Amino acid sequence: MAATHEVTNQPPPLTDYDVFAADLALVEGVQRHNAGWAIDALSSLGRRAGSEQAQEWGRLANVNPPRLVTHDRYGHRIDEVEFHPSWHSLMTVAVGEGLHCLPWTDPKPGAHVARAAGFAVWSQAEGGHGCPISMTHAAVPALRVDAALAAEWEPRLMSRSYDPGLRVPAEKAGCLAGMGMTEKQGGSDVRTNTTRAIPASDGTYRLTGHKWFTSAPMCDVFLVLAQAPGGLTCFVVPRILPDGERNPFRIQRLKDKLGNKSNASSEPEFDETVGWRLGDEGAGVRTIIEMVTMTRLDCVMGTATLMRAAVAQATHHARHRQAFGRYLIDQPLMQLVLADLAVESEAATTLMTRLAAAVDDDESAFKRLGLAVGKYWVCKRGPAVASEALECFGGNGYVEDFPMARIYREAPLNSIWEGSGNVNVLDVLRGLAREPGAWEAFRNEVALATGADARLDAAMKSLEAELADTSDVEVRARRLVEHMALVLQGSLLVRFAPPAVADAFCASRLGGDWGHAFGTLPAGVDAAAIVERATPKVA
User: Fold this and answer.
1) Which of 321, 392, 302, 359 is nearest to 141 (CA)?
2) Which residue in 305, 210, 265 sits closest to 66, CA to CA?
3) What is the pTM (predicted TM-score) of this model?
4) What are the beta bridge partners of residue 221?
5) Domain residues for 512?
6) Chosen domain end from 282, 304, 329
7) Nearest C-alpha neighbor of 176 from the set 225, 146, 140, 207
């Protein structure tokens, strides 16, 4: 019987490696977009993310999900959420590295790119804890609508000290921010919100209503949409009031989600909850859109990160697993699958760093379409990449002991958060119709690669013909935005990626010879070079 306990032909865990240095597309994007000054710090974070300890934190945070505690043992309503210590360890590193504040505290050239790279590296340890990190980062530009509120909250949100627990914000080493927008009758249609905000004599408002999705309810402060007398308005709502009293924030339940298990998503009920108005009455969407713009970029970042993690796991597995007399990575068909996945991942990462650079350089016209197009397409591709990468493991991929199961369950989230696919597609149509400068900036970006690849040039010509036809545009909207995304990614890869990657992308995604299942790259692509580039090198 002893012989049956010998384990052979099982790949070692992908651990103890530099997550950043192994992602060549990310390294090159950081260097290209003025963030080379951050490389040493990113590599240090990469080694930490690739450590056995960090990966164990990620596992434990997911198998020990947060627990809602509505009352203390004496019967007092407390509405708190308890997390596993591993969650707090992950948060401590994320906050300590400034992933929630770097561009605001150190606004040098390339700061948003550096922060995007750090977020992408550390999120490979665990994705769920990125939610409060993302929202805290995104809250700052929205808060700047009101100088007094910004002066009060920015120093707290920019601290690199993680200080969990509900206490008077002024007494905490650091604070985190969340948002409360959607309600059960409206979802993304936030103008149908029914939460009411009544002005009080002290200049604050009293909010009453029920929010449907409010993630990270243990944050210290939230930006909340509610109906004031003048219309939908944004409010700053702290969990603890300046006098130490608990602001009514009654958590009705935590969502039992498909994935993102480590992160608490809640339904809070407001009952005469105190809020400070942020911006004018009736300007709620215009005020909070500054936050949404930032979190949409983080959706692209989160999915690009997930793709990279999936490709790293799949290529590492194939490099060590043998079948039919050869390593999987040397099997021609498996090599095509891995190469196709790697091309998709590199296209997402290259677009992610370009969008972060657009935020750094305040390219408002390009951001207008680029972010919405990127949010739609990259987030749509995430689940397909996760599914195919999982299949590379065979049955092991479908087992919770292995990392692919968690990646697979996490994959659909970013396509839903901050506006699902249709919401982003319609936003692209609005931008095209109302802001001609946005299309001009988009076209100019793609034109930087004109003449470099005939397939890209033909795809751009075809896209312009599609845009000229305004009939049934909503019916064709997804096809149109997909076309825009592929042309934009193709342009970036032709300019910045190795020839093997750019050629494979243009031949498949733009050249009309792609079967849409991974592993159907056309003949002639250098699959071996692409896979070699994508495979983590572990000592």
Assistant:
1) 359
2) 265
3) 0.96
4) 177, 238
5) 287-534
6) 282
7) 140
